[in-house]
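Subject: Sanity check before I submit

Could someone independently write out the structure tokens for this chain? I want to compare against mine line by line before I put it in a report. The sequence has 276 residues.
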Amino acid sequence: MPLLRWSSPRARTRLAALLLLITFADLTVSASYYWQRIAWTLPKPATALLPDATLFRPIKNESENWYGNYSGHAHGPGPNYVFGLRSWLVLASRERWRPVLENWDSHTGRMTEYPALRFYSSASFVPFDRIKEIDQISPPDVRTTFYIHNESALAGVTGSARKLDVEWSLTAFTPNRMHATVDMPEPGFVLFLDNFDRFWKARINGEPATVYPANFTFKALKLPAGKSSIAFEYDPYPIKWGWIAYYLCFIGFLAGGSIGSALGPERIGRYASATP
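---
Independent answer below. Compare away.
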């Protein structure tokens, strides 16, 4: 007796349901960081979804939180640590490092500003591996500097680090995309208080730019003096390729099964025996 009877609609339905269940479970887990940044998946409380993506907008203070009691789960910050980025949680779990998380209120668990940008003339290099010794190193004084984890970012930078007063305006925003215009009084850095991930891409005046990990959990760009347009965009393309590859294979699998069912086992057997 064959293991699978494609001529049985019940067998095909059960197999298709099983494959779909496995697929959605796997893709949901593997793409969790991406999905957490899409407006309609944001928790209302943490176990519910927001019904209206248009309510997701920038905020300048805690009272303007995007929706009700949304507390920043989509970006790591928040009392529900299931959604957190591990390096962010390392800092959030240590009281002396919490001032580095400037746009998060540790008492209420809410975002106080987003998107939040900070500007500096320079930075202090600290290897990222030092996060393993986080209790032995001092946090940066965010009033004057921030930590950058790629020493090449400081090439050509002269003078001591200090915070810059920079005019900037937001021109486009979604959880996966942030565009702004900035007017730098001198060359320096913009620190984006949002979790770093290797699939973040950036452009400065339309040209690709390097996104540097900063303060062990955030991200930064090196900017020239003067007016610039900057763009951060999140694109986890391997996950998308995985979705496409799976669904193509899944469609092919179902199509093959349907063709086999239409031909019937007798005709398939005769064709197989006739093939050298």
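---
OP: Matches mine. For the report I'm noting this point. The helical segments are 9-30, 32-35, 86-92, 237-274.
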